[in-house]
Amino acid sequence: MARIFWMAVGAGAAVWAMNKANDAVQRLTPDSLSGTAARGALHLGDLAKQFAQDVRSGMAEREEQLKDDLGLHGTAVAEPRNTRRVLRGEPQYRAISAAPGRPAAALPPARSARTTPQTIEETPRRALPRGGTNRKDH
What we know:
Layout: H1 2-27, H2 30-70, E1 75-76, E2 96-97
Antiparallel strand pairs: 1-2
């Protein structure tokens, strides 16, 4: 009786091992590998798309918070012009409407270099030694 039992256990183990081996062979065929890679790539693409949507919604939410905190709701208002004489090179501001999605459109154009004259204080000069040179090679 013990021999029949062990023969049945051996046959069952052989069937189980053959099924596992056939499953491994099926998983390692080129069609199966390419299908697995394609499913993995699609899943990764879906995750990346979801991440991008989360980032966009977070950016929009934060932008609205900043607009509320700074009081910016679509327009940029600058100080009105003064009646005084305007010097050349001084920027002129006016109220402009910001283009949706382009906050830089609400700012005045940037100047690369200011042309405002500056006062330079003169430094006192020392008299040169009698030799006419300032070298110390004596």
